[in-house]
Amino acid sequence: MKVKFIHHSCYTIELEKTIIVFDYTEGELLLPKDKDLIFVVTHGHGDHFHPNIFQYKNRAKYLISTHVESGSKEADITWISPDEEKSIDDIKFHAYGSTDEGISVLVEAEGKNLYHSGDLNFWLWPRYMAEDIKNMAHEFMGEVDKAKDFAPIDVLMAVVDPRMGDYYHLTGQYFLKTLTPKHFFPLHLWEDFALSETFAKRFQKEFSNSNIHSIKGDGEEFIL
Description:
Elements (H helix, E strand, L loop, with lengths): L1 E6 L2 E5 L3 E5 L13 E6 L18 E6 L10 E5 L4 E4 L2 E6 L7 E6 L2 E5 L13 H16 L9 E5 L10 H10 L3 E5 L5 H11 L7 E2 L8 E3 L1
Parallel strand pairs: 3-4, 4-5, 5-6, 10-11, 11-12, 12-13
Antiparallel strand pairs: 1-2, 1-14, 2-3, 7-8, 8-9, 9-10
């Protein structure tokens, strides 16, 4: 299995028969033509979705959150909402909610469980009062907990956002504790790649059964 960080929140995961592209907006995609191709779109924010994914419509299939307002009439699209399950060929998709917009998604593909959090994050903005933080914690943890039955997750991609300041780690820490991923990859770094290394060093010893990966830059590949 090959995992490649493309840009911001986009990863590609290459399996034996299939390549899955999560939340593509920009960056170089090198997609072998001898494999099935599926694009996953968790929501319509500009840093998670761009219509240029439909340039591959002649060979690709798409799983897209119903929160996305535009598609392509010629594309093979499967629409999905939170708490729904859909299949594309032999691949199963389980959609969970988000603490912002759209979905987070767990994928059962070729004997592997893959999880992309989209914008499911423990958001802590300066304007939040105590009650806001309490509600956020309840909502965030409740959505993550829905995937417990699939633990340990083979590959988990979750938000490590520098805009959260001293609380940048809360999302990843809870995912590591709850879903015990074999491999953890950060997303939503806003190109603060040093933060991914800080996160990995902070939690690798505590979660020794997980391989916590840091990112050096766009286009980095990992062979698992």
